[in-house]
Amino acid sequence: MQFTHRFTLVICILLGTALHLNSQVAEFPANDPNIFVMGRTLENASGHLEFDWPGVTIETGFTGTSCTIKMEDTKENYYNIFIDDQAVKVVSVMGNTDLRIAQNLPDGDHTLKIVKRTEGKEGKATFKSIVLDDNASLKKLDAGYKHKIEFIGNSITCGYGIEGKNKEEDFLAVTENNYKSYAQIIARAFNSEYHVIAHSGQGVVRNYGDENLTSEYTMPDRYKQVFDEEKEPLWDFTNWKPDMVVINLGTDDFSTEPHPIETVFNRKYTHLVKFIREQYGEIPVFCIVGPMIDEPCYSYVKKMVEANRTHLDDPNTYFIGIPTYLMIDDKDLGSNWHPNYEGQKKMANLLVPVISSVTGWEYGEIK
Fold it and tell me: pTM of the full predicted structure?
């Protein structure tokens, strides 16, 4: 009897495995109209979506009890996974990967959100499809976003080292989390769509650690690209138009010597603002400095903004300075002295009321 019981159990396990492997599923391509994507992406010939900027977000509703995502990556990127508005896991993608996002859910309606934590230097991603139970389906979500905000920045905007234990800890890609950056905190406060165009170490005219006064390839150059790490193709700015732009650049220009010449820095920064104006019109543009840098960057950017407002007939450009002493070293800093989540929330708490006063937008909880 004991042998018969074990034999029957083995047969059941084998049958169960076979049934699982051969069970019918429903697969939906990345360009399905029920899938909403925030951030710069490019649809390839296979209908897959390619991207590398931080914060790219995939949202949809679905039915059934399980969900699998098919993705690919040239290196390794990390993602936050939310099911039914609850953070459920952090996953990484290397090469061709089938991500079992959820299983054994109550049969019914669910929501899915995938947020890219890491920046372009960690690799280029390809989102291929979503696989559900047989007879399950995707459902378009009505997120009710009220505004659109574009963020341009460096490591602070990327969310570099946010989940590092302390300021002395060296950066690891797994500690980068754009979802917890001030950019996405601001977007949530204003219930806004967002694009994050940011790369660690990039300046307006000089990148971090460059021995020269200027660098050949800086953030204003990357800003024009579909992909952070590829100079071609260029982004079509008619694809998505924000209601407001937030720029946080200058930290890397001045973090190390030699500091760029004021006239050169301000001219290049003014050209960036002018380019934004040419693409988007007279929307508010906020030029932020801090909290990892102070003078002379503070004064350079402030004077540049004031010159634009008074002499270049651009009154819709604004300066916001974030003081370095906003951060408490042993509480608000993550890897390599970058703001952690508490520090990023402090930044957002300073920025949101100013933005609200200028735009008239109402805002909710800052989290």
Answer: 0.92
